[in-house]
Amino acid sequence: MSSNEYLPGEIEAHWQERWEKEQVFKAPRLAPENSFYCLEMFPYPSGRIHMGHVRNYTIGDVIARYHGMNGRAVLHPMGWDAFGLPAENAAIERGIHPAKWTRQNIDYMRSQMKRMGFSYDWSREFATSDPSYYRWEQLFFIRMLEKGLAYRSRSYVNWCSQCQTVLANEQVEGGVCWRCSTPVIQKELEQWFFRITAYAEELLQGCDQLRGWPERVLTMQKNWIGKSVGAEVGFPLVNRSDALRIFTTRPDTLYGVTFMSIAPEHPIVKDLAQKDSRIADFVKRSQSKDRQARIETQTSKEGIFSGLYAINPLTQEKVPVYIATFVLMEYGTGAIMAVPTHDQRDFEFARQHRLPLRVVIQPQGESFREETMQTAYEGEGILANSGPFTGIASEEAKKKIVEYLESKGWGQKKVQYRLRDWGISRQRYWGSPIPIIYCDTCGMVPVPEKDLPVALPTDVAFTGKGESPLASHPNFISATCPRCGKKGRRETDTMDTFVESSWYFARYACPDYNKGPLDPDSVHSWLPVDQYIGGIEHAVLHLLYARFFTKVLRDLGYIRLDEPFQNLLTQGMVIKDGAKMSKSKGNIVDPDDMISRFGADTVRVFCLFAAPPEKDLDWSDQGVQGASRFLQRVWRLVIDQESLWKEVGPVPVKDLSSQGIEIYRKAHQTIQKVTDDVGRRYHFNTALAAIMELVNALYLFASAASISDPDKRLFRWSLEVLSKLLAPLAPHIAEELWARLGHKKFIVHSGWLEVDPSAVVEEMQTLAVQVNGKVRARIQVPVGFSEERVREIALGEEKVVQSIQGMRIEKVVLVPGRLLNIVVRR
RNA sequence: GCCGCGGUGGCGGAAUUGGCAGACGCGUCGGACUCAAAAUCCGAAGCCCCUCGUGGGUGUGAGGGUUCGACUCCCUCCCGCGGCACCA
């Protein structure tokens, strides 16, 4: 490497090879004391990396390299979220086996990542489609089954007719499939579930411990869990022995109940539909609607009288029971008490079906009347028409009424969550098989541990029609019952791919461990992840599942950890021409193309400089040019000025010229700024801006007419500082310049920089002099000047004299190092 | 509808704890180098006004407030983005 031209292609290949050969980024098996685990969300191997990946992984790489230079042992792994639908679609469309397609994609994407110079410990790489990975997931499944955390149940589930599979609630976005945007319909199926609801409270409480997570992600998770506190109350049904159980958050409005509403899917409705064809028709009609249609008819409150009456336990009043489409079976008990005066939905329903109203809450200073109410009053107030509770404030009445209900055995306090159990069955081939055998005699039997993994068969036909290829694979289906030895039938559903990504971060600590899923020593030494980086789109999907799974693994005894990710950074999207990059928009920028034209360092610098990580990044070809220009400028600063940095030796601070002192100070200020921006704030754009300022200052310094020997030593030192500051951000050029400056050790191993606090402070400073908040002058004063002295100088300024002429000084405010404000009045 | 985030030059963005708004970069303009162009280096620039100066005013979505002082805090409103959306 001896060219004086900046040739990123050559430099980058050279250093990537050396890093790999000398295993620079290999993490030790056990983490030492001050270790750092830096993880980026691993990709689905779709074929090629896109700019979103480049940005995500560049951010992670800067953080990992920074901590490495600070002497910490860093775990920075990469792998592949390799199961999923696209592989199967490729098989159907192009006749290539999912395993082969996936392997090819992985190989190519790995090569792309290597060309970006990411500091991964590739020895820890794995794909979740490896049997050596998913076998442990099957073991977890069996353990969860034993603990009742996995169960099978027949219920209404989200079904995508395009993907021909079930979707979890988290995978339905606005009523459509998150992958293909097909409207999702409700289908009653036998499915496997993970009991995430058992952890609802802990997942919610945990949000408050996650200090290193962005507030908006926590808010989204809290909303998703959706805790509400209220009461469950039984309303006895007239002429029946059972009672209608309802959940309400407003027990204080119990005296205002004028009817009841139940979901069309409510178990009671099945009986009724058999006897009454009008009800049967209504139920059929409402169920044929997909979610989208139900939402669109929001304003219309459809319903039908069930013929049943319920008795309000508090008043002994008989109220009619309606079947209403807006009542959801999945939430609460699938039945509600209706208080039209104090719930807008009930109000609308009552109006449409001409049902009576009764006001039971009167806010201070108002008195609602049933005949004149145009909308429900949902706020607090004083109870009215509420028997012995009349006159009590609503908040207090809630407590009192619940206590009363409990004393009578009519109901009790109840906490309800919006979160529902995680449906994990997928009717697809390319996923981890669920290790269960069905036997006519023994029923559902888990596959014995010694028979794991239940491997995916490879000889499979992909027709794209009907059910999963596994369901029509005779050899796969046929199995012997582990309990009785008779012929059984294997489960053909596979697990949701979000199961794999719920624990991969732990496996990175011990990817080759084969005595169990996780090597306790290495897992406990490395975890939790110190810094996790990925897109905001996983705020409630992956990030909630991973938290849940961590708690499950803890309770199964595999891990001693409550939360997997200590700090979370959610990076924004990469945008071009005002839209997310996508094939359909035709605004895709290909990373390969950019790397070959400008080099990886330029691509990295652009991604880091154009915006702070959380914000969307606007791709700009001119911006890339700018990044490239900057690196060229850095290159020339070193290469073209060799005569100025041949002097080796410590910087003789006392003998520096005045410009030299300025440079020395500027360099230390830059170290301080970059250390804070990269190490703490993760604001790489301002770190780069500071480095650019230093480069600009060094250019001016180098062009000075004559430079003394002390100043030459300073210049050399400054270039070393510059290389190090740049090393996490643009590692190849930094490594190359470092070597050209004569260093034999990798820059990665040469330590970070210390700030000399005394070098940072300036002797003189500029203060703005304001009169009534308007800047009128700027003065140079020595640091630490007293207020009187500063004031004296300020009042001597001609501009200041002019603007306070004929005024009386009321007050003077000095903000040290910043400004002096003179407040005057006529 | 509810919750959250945001709105700063021609553009991307900076201002970290209430203290000089516009750092840094892009683009633009001017100069140097060149036969010329590109590249490079140096410099100018928020906007408006005028008597063209070492001048004045104004300015962070709009309006109001608190403060000696507000991009920053409070209230009302407008716009954009994201999440949730009949959750009882």
Determine the N-to-C terminus distance: 73 Å
So, CATH architecture of the domain at 227-417? Alpha-Beta Complex
Shape: flat
* Major β-sheet strand ordering: 2-1-24-25
Helix content: 25-40%
Rg estimate, integer Å: 34 Å
What kind of sheet is the major sheet? 4 strands, parallel
Give the CATH class of the domain at 227-417.
Answer: Alpha Beta
Task: Kindly estimate the percentage of residues that lie in beta strands according to DSSP.
Answer: 15-25%
CATH topology of the domain at 227-417: Isoleucyl-tRNA Synthetase, domain 2
> By helix and strand content, what is the structural category?
alpha+beta
Say which CATH homologous superfamily of the domain at 227-417 is assigned: Valyl/Leucyl/Isoleucyl-tRNA synthetase, editing domain
Could you tell me the mean pLDDT? 91
